[in-house]
Amino acid sequence: MANVPPVYADLGKTSRDVFGKGYGFGVVKLDAKTKTSSGINFNVTGTSNNDTGKIDGNLETKYSCTEYGFTFKEKWNTDNTLATELTIENQIANGLKLTFDASFSPQTGKKCGMIKTGYKRDYFNLNADVDFDFAGPTIYGAAVFGYEGWLAGYQMSFDTSKSKLTRNNFALGYKKDDFQLHTNVNEGSDFSGSVYQKVSDNLESAINVGWTSGTNATRFAVGCKYTIDGDSSFRAKVSNTSQIGLGYTQTLRPGIKLTLASLIDGKCLNQGGHKLGLGLELEA
Predict the structure, then answer these.
(1) Integer Cα distance of 124 and 5 in angstroms
(2) pLDDT in tens, 245-270
(3) How far apart are CA 126 and CA 93, in angstroms?
(4) Cα gap 183→167, rounded to integer Å
(5) Which of 185, 181, 183 is nearest to 193 (CA)?
(6) Which of 50, 129, 190, 268 is least surrounded by Cβ atoms within 10 Å, i.e. has the fewest?
């Protein structure tokens, strides 16, 4: 299935990664990953907010059995929420993925659950999810069709308790080699688009634009990533609101990666409000 298009949520993802990855403004973050000899993955993440001082932590364990096509995940965070996820893929039918997702908060007693399905073949990728809300479940659906680089997608959600369509989104894009174009319309009022191009082996660039009809608010941003060598890279982005983001990532040694980031308010260079970020990734 070499011609399978991405899921709807991943349309335009390459451009979003240029603007989103490699930054961590206003936080100090530690991310540690390890894998046992029995194949169980552990991922521990800790984040400290520089403005509020709040510390958040997450623990995730993951076990995959490729022979039987299932993946089992357990998650816990400092808000004391427990989550379990079981995924079965390519067992009932080739290209079919089933996920059972449940979470529980002991403090509040809140329980959430969802069944997610996905089916992908050449030229199309379908998703349908249903949550467990006894007042009336919400149905989520998405479809993406692709042919010779062209991509067209639709995303919706329907609240059965209100008999109302709560999400109605369209997307159109084109992907070819080192160039990607993505446009989408959300709720008929929010229009956005992005262009991604890999200029060279070391340089990636992206442009994001957006407009909201209700407020006439316009968004525009330009970003790039430059890979200095195999161990370091530099990122920069600037928006029409004069927000300038800078990020530098350095691999100190195998399994240890350091990220430094800063967000500068171009309108108030001589005042406060600028943000710094620090990230450390450990993997063994």
Answers:
(1) 6
(2) 999 999 999 999 999 999 999 888 87
(3) 14
(4) 17
(5) 183
(6) 268
